[in-house]
Structure formats: C-alpha cells, structure tokens
Amino acid sequence: MTSNNRPAGNAAANRSTANGQAARTCQFKMVLLGESAVGKSSLVLRFVKGQFHEYQESTIGAAFLTQTVSVDDTTVKLELWDTAGQERYHSLAPMYYRGAQAAIVVYDITNADTFSRAKVWVKELQRQAAPNIVIALAGNKADLAAKRQIEVVDAQAYAEENGLIFMETSAKTAVNVNDIFMAIAKKLPKNQDSSTPGGKSPGGNSITVDRPVNSVGSGSDVGCCGSGTK
C-alpha cells in the first residue's frame, strides 16, 4: 500500500506543507448501501481496522466509523455510515444518505439479486441524494469468483453508463478495499478556499456534513475544508 493509502491519524491534521502553512483538512460524509450480507460492514472494518471476521453480525439501523487518509497535500476525514441492508430498515436510509458527499453501493458477485438491488439504490441516490454525490459500485466477495453470477464486463458497463466508480472487492482478502475508498477520496472536491469565512469558496459553495441525531462522536458540523486540526 502506498503512502497515500495509509491512515493519516490525528497527527495528519497538524501536518505542514513545504512552505510552512498548515495542511488542508477536509471532512466528508460517506454512506454504504446494499442488500443484507453483501459485506458492507466487512468492507468498512477492513478499511478502518484492517480486520476481517468470517461471521459478521447484521447491522441494526446503521453503524458509524471514521477513517482519515492523505490525498496529495490534503488530509481527508471520511465519516462512514454503514447502513443495514434488511428491507425493514429501508425507510431509514434517506436519513443517512441525506447530506452525504459520497456513497458506495455494494453487491455480492455471487448473487444476481443483490446486483439488481444495487441498481435500485443507485437510482434512488441519483434521484434523492445530493446532485454532486460521488457514487461507487463495489462488487464484493471477489474471492468467490468461481461462484460468480455477475460478470465484470456487465457491472463495468452499467457503472460507465451511470458515471460510477467501479471495482470488484474482497473484504476477506483486502483486494481493492483501500483502492475503492481512495478512488472516492481523490474524486471528492477539495478546492474550496479555506480562508473564506464559513469554509465557503469564493463562489459561495460549501460542503456540510449532516449528522443524524443519533450520530457517534462530538463536535459541531464542519464545512469541507479548513487548515489545522478538526
């Protein structure tokens, strides 16, 4: 894994650039969507903690974790909302993807039904989420390629038609897990002028993290980019 893929940790927010100025820090909300048992929680656990549990309990409602990565001269903090895939929790999903700047829609390459469901999630995000949301499609369980029901070329074609980042991943073997999160982090907008009051760019645009009332952690909502610690 390259240096850009390593978690930056708390110290990263205090980094200085070559000219002595504090490095820019950006915070983004990312949501994971998909059917139950496709491996959403396993992907997050692998990305955040480098771990994999063969038997992962089903998520109830949503789970919240954070991870910090470095992209060029910017520290990117990702707020990861891992949503439950069971149908009874579907009505809660908008609470988690509302205000999100990024989403990963996950399906199981060995289960065609989960790919069909992933397409429904993509349509819902395109219709109801932020218009500039970065969406990635993850075909998980690539380690079970011998049992695949969804061909790579079909998923790739669908992703290209809908402007999605696409990779096949394996939370078990870690294949492409860091890569898909980093691909999203690199695509997220980080050019806002942090010197403008309120974190807004000269054009008046800002990215705000929307926290549901039951979010984990403390501190106020933040704009996209700012110098120093957060």
- pLDDT averaged over residues: 77
Low-confidence stretches: 1-20, 192-230
Overall CATH class = Alpha Beta
Class inferred from helices and paired strands: alpha/beta
Distance between the termini: 26 Å
Largest sheet: 7 strands, mixed
Total strands: the figure is 7
In helices, the fraction of residues equals 10-25%
The tally of structural domains comes to: 1
CATH topology title: Rossmann fold
Helix-strand topology string: EHEEHEHEHEHE
Tell me, what's the shape?
globular
Query: How many individual helices?
Result: 5
What is the CATH architecture annotation?
3-Layer(aba) Sandwich
CATH homologous superfamily, by name? P-loop containing nucleotide triphosphate hydrolases
Fraction of residues in β-strands = 15-25%
In angstroms, what is the radius of gyration? 17 Å
Organism: Adineta ricciae (Rotifer)
Subcellular location: Early endosome
Pfam family, one: Ras
Catalytic activity: GTP + H2O = GDP + phosphate + H(+)
